[in-house]
């Protein structure tokens, strides 16, 4: 399929710049896959669609305040850093802007929240093929422990904040209420709509609530630049599936009960580990690597028994889901409205018509109606339920 097939026009004023006043009062568009029928609700109405025995799976990764500000210790020019992944204590890969000025050997002095020198320095060690810089930090025992004081919420580039604006609300709302293990540089945004009270009501209906962890990387915002989807190489992200979550999912699938994934990140974990992670065989058009081998970064998890549909464990996934794709685990999906040409939009198009290609028309038609109805799009925007 062509990347251009997943483009659409969005009025800029529909890009949500702030969250809804209350998490669970955002809007909810319901899409029925079998008929294409659409209904317009509020997020709290999710209760009407869940039933006893369902398993609701959420991504509990916590967003780190990894955006840092600094200046060139010699020349004085300003830099913006976005930490991506920790190699060791005070040793990180990062996106650095402007990249042309961040040559190996550059010394960057960090600023604190007040804009004053923080006494912490980042030295550019090397650059990789993706243009990311490896940084070595000095002046602190562990820069990871200093991020709450030095770092900013890593809001996506389409959410605009002035340099003088307070980000106190973002620190609270660009984080799910159930976030635990730190590691994401972007929020698993479908989970932002849930409150503790709503989750309690869901449990009271007999729905099992459990969690996976997928640490969201910056590639989640990256548009596909290749002309065709088969030419795109997906970024890797770290995940963990606990024994408890694996047990709940396996029991539910054996009993024919539904698995409801909250967010594309949750879905990617579950479909990555389904029956040994044989995702390529479920993707008839996928031959990125020129053979039938599992791609680099994709876990090969053998299934020890026929009843073990998913298996607990940790690893890295580079799964790229686009039409056509056969889903083995997830029966319903809660998600936000995604960027044009993004891998997330391609994923929901695949989910709208498992095993076929008509999902693109279903999703883009639903998006057109959402635009007409003035839904709010992207990270702080409204939600969608695909059944």
Total number of strands: 17
Number of helices: 7
What sort of overall outline do the alpha carbons produce when their principal axes are compared?
globular
What's the CATH H-level superfamily name of the largest domain? QueA-like
Rg over alpha carbons: 21 Å
- State the helical fraction: 10-25%
**Could you give the order of the helices and strands?**
EEEEEEEEEEHHEHEEHEHEEHHE
User: Per CATH, what is the topology of the largest domain?
Assistant: QueA-like
First and last CA, distance: 24 Å
Task: Report low-confidence residues grouped into runs of 5 or more.
Answer: 286-306
Instruction: Please state the second-level CATH architecture of the largest domain.
Output: 3-Layer(aba) Sandwich
What summary fits the major beta sheet? 9 strands, mixed
Structural class: alpha/beta
Strand order of the largest sheet: 2-1-17-16-14-3-12-13-15
Strand portion: 15-25%
Q: What's the number of domains? A: 2
Quote the average pLDDT.
Answer: 91
| CATH first level of the largest domain | Alpha Beta
Give an overview of the whole structure.
A 9-stranded mixed sheet has the order 2-1-17-16-14-3-12-13-15. It has a 6-stranded antiparallel β-barrel with strand order 5-6-7-10-9-8. Strands 4-11 form a two-stranded parallel sheet. Helix 6 (343-352) packs across helix 7 (359-372). It folds into 2 domains: 3-63 and 175-386, QueA-like, CATH 3.40.1780; 67-150, Beta Barrel (Thrombin, subunit H). The protein contains 7 helices and 17 strands. The protein has helices at 143-150, 168-173, 196-204, 243-255, 264-272, 343-352, 359-372; strands at 27-31, 38-42, 55-59, 62-63, 67-72, 78-88, 91-97, 107-111, 117-127, 133-138, 182-184, 208-214, 237-241, 259-262, 313-317, 332-336, 383-386. Helix content is 18%, strand content 25%. It has 387 residues and is α/β, with parallel strands linked by helices.
């Amino acid at each position: 399929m062509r990347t251009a097939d997943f483009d659409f026009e969005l009025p800029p004023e529909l890009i949500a710049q702030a969250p809804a006043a209350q998490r669970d009062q955002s809007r909810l568009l319901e899409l029925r896959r079998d008929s294409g029928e659409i209904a317009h609700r509020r997020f709290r109405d999710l209760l009407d669609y869940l039933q006893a025995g369902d398993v609701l799976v959420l991504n509990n990764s916590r967003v780190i305040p990894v955006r840092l500000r600094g200046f060139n210790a010699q020349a004085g020019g300003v830099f913006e850093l976005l930490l991506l992944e920790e190699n060791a204590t005070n040793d990180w890969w990062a996106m650095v802007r402007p990249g042309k000025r961040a040559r190996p050997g550059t010394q960057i002095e960090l600023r604190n929240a007040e804009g004053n020198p923080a006494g912490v320095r980042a030295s550019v060690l090397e650059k990789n093929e993706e243009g990311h810089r490896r940084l070595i930090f000095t002046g602190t025992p562990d820069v990871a422990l200093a991020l709450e004081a030095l770092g900013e919420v890593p809001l996506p580039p389409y959410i605009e904040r002035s340099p003088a604006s307070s980000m106190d609300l973002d620190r609270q709302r660009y984080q799910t209420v159930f976030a635990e293990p730190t590691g994401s540089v972007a929020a698993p945004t479908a989970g932002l709509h849930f409150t503790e009270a709503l989750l309690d009501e869901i449990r009271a209906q007999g729905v099992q609530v459990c969690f996976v962890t997928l640490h969201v990387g910056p590639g989640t915002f990256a548009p596909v630049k290749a002309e065709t989807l088969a030419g795109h190489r997906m970024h890797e992200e770290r995940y963990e599936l606990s024994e408890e979550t694996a047990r709940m999912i396996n029991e539910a699938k054996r009993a024919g009960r539904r698995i409801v994934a909250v967010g594309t990140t949750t879905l990617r974990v579950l479909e990555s580990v389904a029956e040994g992670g044989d995702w390529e065989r479920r993707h008839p058009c996928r031959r990125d690597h020129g053979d039938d081998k599992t791609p680099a970064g994709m876990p090969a998890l053998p299934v020890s028994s026929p009843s073990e549909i998913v298996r607990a464990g940790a690893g890295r996934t580079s799964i790229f889901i686009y039409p056509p794709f056969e889903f083995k685990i997830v029966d319903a999906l809660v998600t936000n409205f995604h960027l044009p040409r993004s891998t997330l939009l391609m994923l929901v198009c695949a989910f709208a018509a498992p095993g076929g290609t008509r999902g693109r028309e279903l999703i883009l038609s639903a998006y057109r109606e959402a635009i007409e109805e003035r839904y709010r799009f992207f990270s702080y925007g409204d939600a969608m339920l695909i059944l």
